[in-house]
Amino acid sequence: xxxxxxxxxxxxxxxLTDDVVDEQSFVGLVESVVAAGVDSxxxxxxxxxxxxxxxxxxxxxxxxxxxxxxxxxxxVGVGALRTSQVLANVDSAQEAGAAGVLLAPVxxxxxxxxxxxxLFRTVSEYTDLPIVVYDNPGTTHFHFSNELYARLAExxxxxxxxxxxxxxxxEAARRHVAAIRAVVPEHVTIGVSGDASAANxxxxxxxxxxSVIAGTLPSPAVEITRAxxxxxxSDAVAASDRLAPLWDLFVEFGGSLRVMAAIAxxxxxxxxxxxxxxxxxxxxxxxxxxxxxxxALGLDD
Amino acid sequence: xxxxxxxxxxxxxxxLTDDVVDEQSFVGLVESVVAAGVDSxxxxxxxxxxxxxxxxxxxxxxxxxxxxxxxxxxxVGVGALRTSQVLANVDSAQEAGAAGVLLAPVxxxxxxxxxxxxLFRTVSEYTDLPIVVYDNPGTTHFHFSNELYARLAExxxxxxxxxxxxxxxxEAARRHVAAIRAVVPEHVTIGVSGDASAANxxxxxxxxxxSVIAGTLPSPAVEITRAxxxxxxSDAVAASDRLAPLWDLFVEFGGSLRVMAAIAxxxxxxxxxxxxxxxxxxxxxxxxxxxxxxxALGLDD
Lengths: 301, 301
What we know:
Two copies of one chain form a homodimer.
Chain A: E1 7-10, E2 16-17, E3 20-21, H1 23-35, E4 40-43, H2 55-68, E5 74-77, H3 83-96, E6 100-103, H4 113-126, E7 131-134, H5 137-140, H6 146-153, E8 158-163, H7 170-181, E9 189-192, H8 198-203, E10 208-211, H9 218-229, H10 233-242, H11 244-252, H12 256-266, H13 284-296
Parallel strand pairs in A: 1-4, 1-10, 4-5, 5-6, 6-7, 7-8, 8-9, 9-10
Antiparallel strand pairs in A: 2-3
């Protein structure tokens, strides 16, 4: 059986309607990424608004994801500000039947490297579920070092590290990934996020892509991942380059989340205004520009 | 009656014992700052670990603060990641008898200025309680502009703006505060935080000091505030300068929170390890250095 922390992991949105989880939309997103052939689903990632949801909402979403993912393994985001809240989320992920947990060092007060190590050590001792170390400085404002990656990778539960986007230059990306690989044992996979650099990251040796777009637009993500994993590096880059107008919108509109929510809403996969307030939806002009891009990319198939 | 958003507001810790709020310690801190003559108490500020506590814990802490503050007005921190959670906290603050609420734009996903304006507008329409706009970029990573201050200050509920530390140079501090004052109507007070620059901020025209140290060491904060508010600018600066070894420890040990927790623990005002995990307590060497500083400052009286 393949290591579940390799290949393409799709991060579905957790759409809300009137501040309540829209379970039907969420199930629809899960079923559609399963049908598209993703390798795993990560429910309650940043794209799944985990940080905004209550413990009960998260338990329910984890359950829905597992129940509708069929044979596709489900990783569940368990991050929270307080260690005891993380452990409660681990419990509900385990009860739901998760295949692993994704854990970011969520911060309000800045955390030290020792704080973060102790958090992961505590979770690693608490559960037998494999752990994905989630390095997302854009949301957590915590900055990992390769030395901390190495310390964490020694913990028995740690199975994968989700790194931020890699450098745009292919050779620089290879050096970047190789430097992490050099300090992390073989059994711990390295997965890239930052969708715009995913092809580059996979070509540079990342074994997984933890993907925002795959949660809503799985087909092009499957294509990029297959090409890279089959050694067709230039095909992967070409497939990614075709999505450049989408990557540009991520930059222009302040990140991938609002753009992907707008796309899901536009395509009827989520109700209008599906993100938790205070995150405002994009406006009509922005949505019109997104529609033009998505239509031109032929992503409606 | 004086505007309650002027003078010295003390931010007590919310000590935990084994991950449960230590109500006796919290009440002790509230009673001791009341006895020291602070002008208001802000419960559940950053120092009070609001972001880490559940809605129920926050409701209980708000109630305890009001019940033990006597005639001293209590402001309650209501910030949360999700607008609906903020409103729930406003409800519990109101039920507790709070005199006002403190609201920071807590982030996981980065927020736009429009997101933050709409958050404050929503809260302003929801409650009659006066609102303190809480600008704390070190924890929220959200950056206000003077233009946003001005927009928020037009909202009917907004009564005060808690700004970060001001420049160290007195004249630069005056220009800094004057620039904010110029765009904010008179009825909205400006309060300084960043304890090391509080004397400078008060001398520069801030009407309030939202103070971390006053939650645990109120006497020197009362002295600084009185001097500044009575126009004895150089006395205020001198009193602040005497605390320079403490300000240095804040910088060296990554902020005021862990230092103040260690001081409270050392003085028997809070149980050992009173901060929510994953925030680790300072180690024994660090505590020894803090004790030397506190003893030398004669703050044990």
